[in-house]
Amino acid sequence: MHARTRGFGLLLALVALVVAGCGGSSDTTGSDSASSNPDGGGVRLSLVAFSAPKVGFDKVIPMFQQTPAGKNVSFSQSYGASGDQSRKVESGLKTDVVEFSLEPDVTRLVDAGLVDSSWKDDQNKGIVASSVVTFVVRKGNPKHITTWDDLLKPGVEVVTPNPFSSGSAKWNLLAPYAYKSDAGKNPQAGLDYLKQLITHVKTQPKSAREATELFTQGTGDVLLSYENEALLAEKNGEAVEHHNPAQTILIQNPIAILKDSPHQKQAEAFKDFLYSAEGQRGWGEAGFRPVDQSVAKQFADKFPAPKTLYTIDQLGGWDKVNTALFDPDKGSVAKLYETATN
User: Fold this and answer.
1) Which of 151, 199, 302, 339 has the most C-beta neighbours closer than 10 Å?
2) Residues of the domain holding 293
3) What is residue 166's predicted lDDT score, i.e. its pLDDT?
4) CA 318 from centroid of its chain's CA atoms
5) What is the DSSP string of 309-336?
């Protein structure tokens, strides 16, 4: 466990990292389990995922079960913080399929010998669904928050998770960092912005879902979140609305199958269905941006194109970004959080 993590965030976030037993990555810590088609017979697939896509799997699992390949497949499901979920699997939690908020949480399992290194050698690079970072504000947007600079206005309180437990939080910080640094060309400009932004973050929940719950219960003026989380909150009748900033980042959520899964055939069939046109429409209907561009066109009105959409590749990829910004001992963002909490 890295010593400097003692300076970050809420005590709960620290406890979760200690319990998880291995420092580093990303989204809710309590594991929210569910089962689907428990009496269906046949094979039972285990799914371990971060918290946000539960609404997506609630949509696509029943669709898969209506297909010949999914007819006799039932599911056990566990949802929680992306980094915590990844560490649990690394520590021995048995599962067949994982979906995480960001690539490093799959890389951890590759390094542990649990996922094959070829997991992203396909046309979608292992990404099953996507989203963008958005602003969630109170109904009517009373503080007129539409740009990244608006977050720095005096008195504006920002809600975003702790980046040392939440994948969502990393995406939330990378969006303005990419914009202010001109896609990484001027790193200091990006860090200067984040330094100011962090002073407006008074609460650091552990995951995107926990952050949404805190915000809808009245904490803060603006929530940085996945677009799909914002759409879900609006659908559920919460008194909020969302505004995609003109400059944001493409959130890419990876999926992988465990090498020691005893149900490789069924797991592969499920993964293939998620990439099918029908499966991609299910993701779109659940609030996620389809990675199949032909299907994405059907949701053009629901998912408007930002003026500027940055990608993690433009910043050098996750290996570079995770080390340079989020390494608990040496990362630039880690140092900003340590300074802010001391």
Assistant:
1) 151
2) 3-129+253-301
3) 83
4) 14
5) EE-GGGGT-HHHHIIIII-TTT-HHHHH
For residues 199 and 268, membership in a common domain is answered with no
- Closest Cα partner for 286 from 133, 105, 131? 131
Angle between helix axes 332-341 and 187-198 (nearest 10 degrees) is 30
State pTM to two decimals: 0.86
CATH number at residue 243: 3.40.190.10
My answer on whether 90 and 142 are in the same domain is: no
The answer to whether residue 141 scores a pLDDT higher than 90 is yes
My answer on whether 137 and 123 are in the same domain is no
Whole-number Å distance between alpha carbons of 210 and 220: 13
Which ranges in the chain belong to alpha helices (H)?
11-20, 54-65, 82-90, 103-111, 167-180, 187-198, 208-216, 227-235, 264-275, 277-285, 293-296, 318-321, 332-341
Q: What is the mean pLDDT of residues 208-222?
A: 93
Distance CA 110, CA 128 (A): 18
What pLDDT score does 40 carry?
41
- In sequence order, what DSSP letters do the residues of 246-282 get, joined into one string? SEEEEEEEEEEEBTT-TTHHHHHHHHHHHHSHHHHHH
Cα(160)–Cα(220) distance, rounded to whole angstroms?
Answer: 10
pLDDT on residue 208: 84
The C-alpha atoms of residue 117 and residue 189 are separated, in whole angstroms, by 35
Domain contains 115 = yes
The residue type found at 229 is E
Check residues 64 and 165 and name the one with the higher pLDDT.
Answer: 64
Q: Does the pLDDT of residue 290 top 60, yes or no?
A: yes
Residue 145 and residue 92 in one domain: no
The pLDDT value recorded for residue 19 is 33
User: How many other CB atoms are there within 10 angstroms of residue 235's CB atom?
Assistant: 11
Residues 213 and 323 in one domain: yes
Nearest to 69 by CA among 295, 256, 279: 279
Specify which residues 34 forms β-bridges with.
77
The count of domains in the chain is: 2
The helix, strand and coil proportions of the chain, stated in percent and rounded to the nearest 5, come to 45, 20, 35
pLDDT of residue 18 exceeding 80, the answer is: no
Same domain, yes or no, for 75 and 150? no
